[in-house]
Amino acid sequence: MNEISEADVIVVGGGLHGTSSALHLAKRGVKVIVLEADYVARHSSGVNAGGVRTLGRPLPEIPLALMSREIWHGMTDLLGEDGGFVPSGQLKIAETEAELETCRERVALLASHGFTHEKIIDRETVLELEPALARHVTGGIWVERDGYALPYRTTTAFRLAAQRLGVRFLEGTPVRRIEQRGERWFAQTPRGTFGAQKMLIASGAWSGELSKQAGEPVPVHPEGLMLMVTHRVAPFCRATLGATGRPLSFKQFDNGTVVIGGKLIGIAELANRHGEVDFMRLVKSAQTVTDLFPHLRHLGVNRAWAGVEAFTEDELPVISASRTASNLYYSFGYCGSGFQLGPGCGKLVSELMLDGEPSLSLDAFAIDRFHARATSAAADALPLVTH
Ligand SMILES: Cc1cc2nc3c(=O)[nH]c(=O)nc-3n(C[C@H](O)[C@H](O)[C@H](O)COP(=O)(O)OP(=O)(O)OC[C@H]3O[C@@H](n4cnc5c(N)ncnc54)[C@H](O)[C@@H]3O)c2cc1C
């Protein structure tokens, strides 16, 4: 029998959520091994748009996003570098009166829940912030403390900080099977078996297979999210932009290039661990950009790519202890918005795993919520018995 490599915690997946959780666990003195099928930051966490956005979050995610944003602002204290974080502000543009009304309703809804980070701004203020925008804009929502960062650099910085605290990263080490013997968890890989008291599944779009092995199937599916980056152009846009009526995520880096996306769906190949670009769909996005910035009409695209991301059916992540087994935890299914949450969720996951209670409630992200919903839908569908 193979010798078993031991740790206190095994993390399956070296994306931002795996590396951030590993770092926060190691800060509490825990011995961690991260098992990564490809290489750290190979998938969503290294190839995303870098948006550090609290703007537009679903209500249950807002407390996490606001907490995570404070970590972004102090990233150098945590990692010794800032991951390229630029607090550029994020602006969601309205292009019609009806869209501006939608923005007002959103901000009023947030206010009714006590959240005041999203502010309505009028057309003049939008154009003052971004003078190169097309004149048809009608206003928007502005979040001053949001921004963007460099995804590969950030995830690598988490990895290096974790390594400095003794975390071991094994790349090219896919976990084929997970299994509990007694209280301990074991991960079988082509490089041998790894054992630990606790296990965290942070395997992005591949997490569903592992949760199924633990007897907890989750409705999670992969999507290939696309981005493109343009040639360099003179500085014209400072904020990170989104739109209200159509998909858009848009920012200009200091080097002049512009990154364009906005949950544009390409092709996800889970088995081949690969995303493919669908150029016809990218064209639509290019059209949005030239509508908003007509002077970019002749700007060339340098590169386009697709990253494989995990989506759940209610568009919220799973951040949870297992409901069927002891010592097993999950953090996956970030639905195209998990980069911003990575620093904060890693901290909360470490608290969940070590203290049982995180400092912010994770109840909305419990793994059994899908099952509970399916059961109550089935009960609703039962015929009423009349006497
Ligand atoms: C194109 C694109 C743009 C995006 N833009 C933004 C944005 O602007 N802002 C934002 O907040 N979010 C954005 N996101 C979403 C964000 O990138 C993800 O939500 C986040 O990176 C998810 O991190 P993760 O650690 O859960 O997953 P991943 O980064 O996918 O990491 C999971 C890791 O687990 C490994 N793994 C899987 N199975 C196994 C196994 N069996 N054994 C060992 N290892 C395994 C994988 O190889 C992978 O490295 C974007 C995503 C994409 C694709």
Automatic annotation (TrEMBL):
Can you tell me which residues the record assigns to a coiled coil?
Answer: none
- The answer on whether this UniProt entry bears the keyword Oxidoreductase reads yes
Q: Name one Pfam family in it.
A: DAO
Q: Which domain of life is it from?
A: Bacteria
Do the record's keywords include tRNA processing?
Answer: no
Q: Which residue ranges does the record assign to the FAD dependent oxidoreductase domain? A: 8-352
* Alphabetic keyword roster: Oxidoreductase
Question: What's a GO cellular component annotated to this UniProt protein?
Answer: cytoplasm
UniProt GO molecular function: oxidoreductase activity
Q: What is the name of this protein?
A: FAD-dependent oxidoreductase
Q: What is the lineage of its organism?
A: Bacteria, Pseudomonadati, Pseudomonadota, Betaproteobacteria, Burkholderiales
